Amino acid sequence: MNTPTLVASLIMAGLLALAIAMLIQAMIRGWRRRAEQQAHLVGTLPSLPDTVGPAIIAATTGLYVGSTLSPHWNDRVAAADLGFRAKAVLSRYPEGIMLQRKGAGPIWIPDDAIVEVRAEKGLAGKALTHEGILAIRWRLPTGTEIDTGFRADDRRAYSKWLPEEVS
User: Fold this and answer.
1) Rounded to two decimals, what is the model's pTM?
2) Which of 72, 105, 128, 158 could tie 132 with a disulfide, CB 3.0–4.6 Å?
3) Which positions, given as ranges, span the membrane (predicted)?
4) Cβ contacts of residue 124 below 8 Å, gap of 6+?
């Protein structure tokens, strides 16, 4: 490779690296702006109870997909530590639902805040060909309804979570 070609290649590589850095910075700025705009809608999440009764539905392992503003399956919540996917364990108690996430704080969904539990094909930018996401619609203390998505390691576990069908 001759010197002018090497110099041109280095300049192009530098410009490409700069463009990628600017793109990443813009994405981070957009995510922060989204979190700021949603802060008043989300408010503070319900605090964990001091004690809970025995588990109604035993721990189900899987992936916390994210939370979205209802009824928009693709309007991801970025505020209040709800925006990032994580491995998780979902358990149901008489007082509510506990979603314990790895690398993030737990999410407590009080029983009186739960609107519905259903299976969905897509939530929070994750779309599947079958109903592979357990979506929990619940009302935050601010009154905003959100859908929290969970993809179980074993989809057969959804039968324990979904309400019985009346024929």
Assistant:
1) 0.78
2) 128
3) 6-28
4) 65, 66, 67, 68, 73, 74, 76, 149
Tokens of residue 26, six digits: 């813009």
Two structure tokens written together for 150:
């969970």
Non-local (6+) Cβ contacts of 127 within 8 A are 121
What percent of the residues of the chain are helix, what percent strand, and what percent coil, each to the nearest 5? Answer: 30, 35, 35
- Beta strand 114-120 pairing with 122-123: unpaired
The answer to whether 108 and 49 are in contact (CB under 8 A) is yes
Q: Dump pLDDT digits (tens) for 94-137.
A: 999 999 999 988 999 999 999 999 888 877 666 676 778 899 99
163 upstream amide cis, omega within 30 of 0: no
Q: Are 133 and 120 in contact (CB under 8 A)?
A: yes
Q: Do 41 and 70 meet the contact criterion of CB atoms below 8 Å apart?
A: no
